[in-house]
């Protein structure tokens, strides 16, 4: 799927850059443009992609310090300038725009939904948000910010693909090492998904294309992405169990939102050499995903890749009813009550959280 990426805020810019690098190194060319917007000058200076500083008159290049209402306001005020810069970068063949942001901070948290609204007003292609949720040990401001941002993102974007910062964390690593590690994992998974809908070599009926990604995300709401890979035998007939267990591993232990398996729609992509991909294995894996997610719309497709390994990517659409998402919204609502005493007038999934704007 040909995509233009727009990173907003610190995490958004870093993840956008790592994704663009992964796509380039792998020679996929699915990412047709990468751009970073921030209120903090220093964060932009460390990036190699095109950048734009916003909110200079209000925060003098120092960031918004976790104030996501200010982040949203700045993006709304400077929407015209940002859109002008983007216009030059949104390739005419782009099939989607993906805004990338950490939802717990200020600039990305407030700016991402504001930008999604503006992009949706102007462009016909789907506008997705790749949103990073704060880990459990991050403070209540981060949780509350992410809850309000998420609620608004769901309203403004066509789908929110979420990454829980706790999802792939390993023990014994510093916060910084943790970010580097998780950013690489995001890049690999999201990068493969986007490329899967793009590669047309070895075309066969079973090769996945971008419309399947778009259709899986069509119903909106929250999406998540899982991944697992393993050595595979040269002969497809020996890989039936490998494929079913990769699908299980991907859904049960590899998702970007752990324990969120109830879904409206799913897409299973098996990546590897076509000769190694067992059709029987793929069919069984799809059936299993159907049962596990309770979704009747489980799409499937191959991603031909020259590797001795096989990998399973599972994209779930419409996971907002899952327990994990409810838990997060509970955490965000509690944090919101702790950090401010505003009245909650609207509800998202029965949780009392205000929209950002
Ligand atoms: N995965 C990941 N998360 C990050 C990274 N950097 C920050 N975060 C998370 O993003 C959230 C903070 O958002 P930032 O992007 O730092 O904040 P910002 O949007 O720049 O906003 P301000 O700094 O307030 O202007 C927190 O939940 C962090 O855990 C990163 O490199 N990778």
UniProtKB/TrEMBL annotation:
Residues 2-202 form the Tubulin/FtsZ GTPase domain. It comes from the Archaea. It is found in: Cytoplasm. Keywords: Cell cycle, Cell division, Cell shape, Cytoplasm, GTP-binding, Nucleotide-binding. GO terms for biological process: cell division; microtubule-based process; regulation of cell shape. Residues 331-357 are annotated as: Disordered. GO terms for cellular component: cell division site; cytoplasm; microtubule. Residues 331-345 have a biased composition (Basic and acidic residues). Its main location: cytoplasm. This is Tubulin-like protein CetZ. It comes from Halovenus carboxidivorans. The lineage of its organism: Archaea, Methanobacteriati, Methanobacteriota, Stenosarchaea group, Halobacteria.
């Amino acid at each position: 799927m040909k995509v233009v990426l727009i990173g907003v805020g610190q995490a958004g810019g870093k993840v956008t850059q790592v994704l663009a690098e992964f796509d380039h190194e792998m020679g996929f060319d699915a990412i047709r443009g990468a751009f970073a917007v921030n209120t903090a000058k220093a964060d932009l200076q460390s990036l190699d992609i095109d950048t734009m500083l916003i909110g200079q008159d209000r925060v003098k290049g120092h960031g918004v310090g976790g104030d996501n209402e200010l982040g949203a306001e700045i993006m709304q005020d400077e929407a015209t300038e940002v859109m002008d810069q983007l216009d030059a970068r949104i390739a005419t063949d782009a099939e989607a725009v993906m805004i990338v942001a950490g939802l717990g901070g200020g600039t990305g948290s407030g700016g991402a939904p504001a930008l999604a609204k503006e992009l949706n007003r102007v462009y016909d292609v789907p506008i997705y948000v790749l949103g990073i949720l704060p880990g459990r040990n991050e403070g209540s401001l981060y949780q509350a910010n992410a809850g309000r941002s998420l609620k608004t993102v769901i309203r403004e974007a066509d789908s929110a693909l979420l990454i829980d910062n706790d999802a792939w964390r390993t023990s014994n690593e510093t916060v910084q090492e943790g970010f580097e590690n998780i950013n690489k994992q995001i890049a690999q998974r999201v990068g493969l998904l986007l490329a899967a809908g793009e590669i047309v070599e070895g075309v066969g009926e079973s090769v996945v294309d971008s419309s399947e990604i778009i259709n899986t995300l069509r119903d909106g709401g929250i999406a998540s992405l899982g991944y697992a890979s393993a050595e595979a035998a040269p002969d497809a007939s020996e890989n039936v169990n490998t494929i079913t267990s990769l699908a299980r591993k991907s859904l049960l232990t590899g998702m970007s939102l752990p324990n969120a398996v109830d879904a409206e729609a799913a897409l299973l992509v098996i990546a590897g050499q076509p000769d190694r991909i067992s059709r029987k294995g793929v069919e069984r894996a799809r059936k299993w995903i159907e049962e596990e997610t309770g979704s009747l719309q489980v799409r499937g497709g191959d991603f031909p890749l020259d590797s001795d390994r096989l990998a399973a990517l599972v994209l779930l659409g419409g996971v907002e009813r899952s327990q994990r998402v409810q838990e997060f919204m509970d955490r965000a609502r509690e944090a919101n009550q702790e950090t401010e005493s505003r009245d909650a007038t609207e509800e998202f999934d029965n949780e009392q959280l205000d929209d950002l704007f």
